[in-house]
Amino acid sequence: MRVFLFLGEALLFILVLADHHEGDHKHDKDDHHDHKEDDHKKGEHHVNEYHHQHNKSMPSYKIAQYTSKFSFDLYRQVALDHPSENIVFSPVSVSTSFAFLSLGAKAQTHSQIIKGIGLNISEISEQEIHEGFHHLLDLLNDVDRELQLSGGNALFISQEHKILQTFLDKAKNLYHSEAFSTDFKNEEAAKNQINSYVEKNTHGKIPELLESVDQDAVLVLINYIYFRGKWEKPFDEEWTRERNFHINENTTVKVPFMSRTGLYNVAFTKEAVVVSLHYKGDADALFILPKKGKLSKIEKNFNEETIQKWKKSMEKKYVDLSLPKFKISGTIDLKETLSKMGVVNIFSDNADLSGITGRNNLKVSKAVHKAVLSVDEKGTEAAGSTVVEVVPRSTPDVIFNRPFIFSLCDYKTKSVLFTGRVLNPQK
C-alpha cells in the first residue's frame, strides 16, 4: 500500500478600521471589482524563465536563507507558547502573507513586518523580496511537478470601502492574488463565502476556517497552501501494527505504527535520532526523535545550524523504521505570537497601512493560522511498481514512540513548507 501525506493550510488576516466612523469612508462599490475570479484561475500559473535554473540567482533562492531563519524563530516561539500541545504550521505561508501585507505598510509598521519575518532590507532589496515570493508561488503551482503542491492568496474586499488600485495591481502581479467583492454586513454570507473558498483550495482539508466575521472588516486576506506527496519508498499496510506511544512518563496511548525495513539517511546523535524520508519529487520530511528528556532543550536551540549539523552526520543505514500514523491540526493566534517577535504596530492603533486605502485608518484585528496534517495509507500500489530491497539480517530499530519533531522541506523552492511537533498522535 502507498503512504500519502496530506496537508492543507490557510492563513487569515482581517483588517478593520482603527475607528468605525463609516460615513466618512464609503465609496463607489465598483472601484475595486475589476479583479474578477476569471483573472486568476488555479492551475493556470506557469513557472517563469527561472524554472530550470537551479542556482543562487533564482529569486526564490535569494530569500530562502531569510525565510529559513524565520521558520526556526517562529517554531521556537510557538513551541514556547504551546508547551503541552501538538503544533503544526506552514512557515512559508506565514512569511508569504506578511510579505504580501507589507505592500500596503509604511514607516515603522513596514520595517517591523520585514524584520519580523527574518528579512534584512540592508542585505536584500524590497524588489528582490517581492520577486522572491512571486517566484516561490510560481514554483509551488508548477503543474508539471510530481508532487501535488499549490499555494495562493485571495482578498475578500468590503463593498463599503475603497482599496487603492495600485495595491490591487501589486497583489495580483506579485502575489497572484484573486480579489472578491464581499458584503461583510451580511456576516453569515461573508463567512460562508470565505470558508467555501478555503475548503475548495485546501481540497476539503479545512472546511471551516472562520466561525464568524467582523461586519466592520475592510478586507480579509487568505493565504493557503496544499500538499500531497507519495513516499519514494512506501510502507506496506500489512505491516502496520498497534503499539504504545509514550506521551510522557505517566501517559501511554495505543497508536497504529507503520513499519518498514530499508535504507535511510539516519543520524544517531547525543540529542536525537534523525531520519530523512524522501517523497517522489523534490521534497523530503525530516523526523527528529529527541532522546528521553531532551525535547525541551532541542526546541530551545532549534535552528538552521543544528539541522545542518545533523545532516552532515547522516549516513545511509538499513534500519527498522516504525512511524505512527497521525492526524494533527493546529490554530495559532499570530497576533499574539508575532507581537512577541517584534511585529507590534500592525495590530495597534499605531498601524500605518495607508498603502492599502490611501488613508491611515487600518489595523490588523485578527491574524489566525490553521493547519491540518495527516500521515496515513491510501490507495493500492500495483505489483509492477513494488520496491524490493535486500536488507541485512540484523538492523537497528528506530521507533518514534514518544514526542517528536518533523519538518517538511521543498528543495525546489528551498522552503520549509510545514513543521511541527507531535506530542500525542491521537489528537
Tell me about this structure:
This protein is α+β, with helices and mostly antiparallel strands. The chain has 10 helices and 15 strands. The strands form 2 sheets. Strands 2, 6, 7, 8, 9, 10, 13, 14 and 15 form a 9-stranded mixed sheet that branches. Helix 5 (165-175) links the parallel strand 3 and strand 4 (177-182). Helix 1 (59-81) packs across helix 4. The chain starts with a strand and ends in a 5-residue tail after the last strand.
The number of distinct helices, counting runs of at least 4 residues, comes to: 10
**SSE-based structural type:** alpha+beta
Portion in helices = 25-40%
Poorly predicted runs: 1-8, 18-54, 378-388
Helices and strands in order:
Elements: E1 3-17, H1 59-81, E2 87-89, H2 91-101, H3 107-116, H4 126-140, E3 148-158, H5 165-175, E4 177-182, H6 187-201, E5 217-230, E6 241-246, E7 252-268, E8 272-278, E9 283-290, H7 295-300, H8 304-312, E10 315-324, E11 326-333, H9 334-339, H10 354-357, E12 362-377, E13 397-399, E14 404-410, E15 415-422
Helix pairs in contact: 1-4
Q: Care to give the gist of this entry?
A:
It is built from 10 helices and 15 strands. It has 427 residues and is an alpha+beta fold.
